[in-house]
């Protein structure tokens, strides 16, 4: 059963470990703050819309949540007039593999601070498949025993550093995970986070596996395993077991999209992925960083 929040406007109900919300005011700072708290608490929020949402209203909501990434002119895959919104489709950014799928990832991989929320609005949805999966690595950590928490709180991940830069070769591009994200090296080299900086210059080689969430201050796993070489002083088997654990059924939810759905996804203690699809699908993506 759904419940209305205290101001009797937004309707809120729990979906798996996340939330579904409807009847929001896209220009309300109060609603934006409520949504931000729910993203921090539940790893994702689905906002249901029965009609198209104008890009201006999407940007208004995002700005009330935090800083929003505005891409430079070299990044062509944007909604006309709104450099805060990137087009995601088979020939645009985040196009994925040949079958349209996209592996587990998030917007903070290899760096201590990046876009902490990714907003995804379904603008066109004439396809079969294309579900988006979300993980809950915060609950996965909270469910551990005290001894297990102590063990993982003392572990450090060793990252693969992205080597795509202005002087990179075709072979570098071919072997990089970002080839499934950007159309070309020009976009890859000019794409920015919400703070206006190049994500590549913030990359670090080592980072703790357990981190504190900036909204609810809870500890959780920060483990973008596709770019993790290994866990310092631990065997590959230990890393494999952690991967299997955080991707176990209890901590994964797949969202089946309706047209005009807006999903805000936590990037601190969560990964997301896309299943394969056939047909036309265009999603509008924006990166948000907490103020």
Number of strands: 19
Assess the beta-strand content as a share of residues.
25-35%
Domain module count: 1
By CATH, the topology is Double-stranded beta-helix
CATH superfamily, please?
A: Clavaminate synthase-like
Oligomer: single chain
Helix content: 10-25%
Gross CATH architecture: 4-Layer Sandwich
Largest sheet: 10 strands, mixed
The shape is globular
| Low-confidence runs | none
Which value, in Å, is the CA radius of gyration? Answer: 18 Å
Class computed from helices, strands and strand pairing: alpha+beta
Separation, N- and C-terminal Cα atoms: 33 Å
The topology string of helices and strands comes to EEEHEHEEEEEEHHEHHEEEEHEEEE
Total number of helices: 7
Q: What's the average pLDDT? A: 93
CATH class: Alpha Beta
Architecture overview:
This protein has 291 residues and is α+β, with helices and mostly antiparallel strands. It has a single domain, classed as Clavaminate synthase-like (Double-stranded beta-helix, 4-Layer Sandwich). 21% of the residues lie in helices and 31% in strands. The strands form four sheets. Strands 1, 2, 3, 4, 5, 6, 7, 9, 17 and 19 form a ten-stranded mixed β-sheet that branches. A four-stranded antiparallel β-sheet has the order 8-18-10-16, with no helix packed on it. Strand 1 (3-4) and strand 2 (11-15) form a beta hairpin. Helix 1 packs across helix 2 (55-65).
């Amino acid at each position: 059963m759904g419940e209305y929040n205290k101001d009797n406007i937004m309707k809120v109900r729990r979906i798996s470990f996340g939330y579904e919300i409807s009847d929001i005011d896209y220009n309300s700072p109060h609603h934006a703050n409520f949504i931000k708290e729910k993203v921090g608490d539940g790893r994702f929020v689905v906002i249901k819309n029965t009609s198209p949402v104008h890009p201006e209203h999407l940007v208004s909501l995002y700005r009330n949540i935090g800083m929003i990434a505005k891409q430079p002119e070299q990044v062509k895959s944007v909604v006309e007039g709104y450099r805060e919104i990137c087009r995601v489709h088979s020939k645009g950014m985040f196009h994925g593999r040949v079958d349209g799928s996209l592996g587990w990832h998030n917007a903070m991989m290899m760096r201590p601070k990046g876009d902490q929320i990714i907003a995804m609005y379904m603008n066109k949805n004439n396809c079969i498949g294309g579900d988006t999966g979300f993980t809950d690595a915060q609950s996965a950590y909270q469910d551990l025993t005290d001894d297990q928490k102590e063990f993982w709180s003392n572990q450090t991940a060793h990252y693969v550093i992205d080597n795509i830069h202005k002087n990179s070769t075709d072979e570098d591009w071919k072997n990089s995970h970002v080839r499934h994200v950007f159309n070309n090296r020009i976009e890859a080299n000019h794409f920015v986070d919400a703070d206006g900086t190049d994500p590549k210059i913030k990359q670090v080689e080592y980072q703790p596996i357990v981190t504190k969430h900036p909204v609810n201050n809870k500890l959780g796993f920060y483990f973008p395993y596709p770019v993790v070489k290994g866990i310092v002083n631990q065997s590959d088997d230990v890393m494999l077991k952690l991967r299997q654990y955080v991707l176990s059924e209890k901590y994964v939810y797949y969202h089946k999209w309706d047209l005009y759905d807006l999903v805000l996804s936590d990037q601190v203690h969560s990964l997301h992925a896309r299943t394969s699809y056939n047909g036309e699908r265009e999603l509008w993506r924006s990166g948000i960083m907490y103020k």
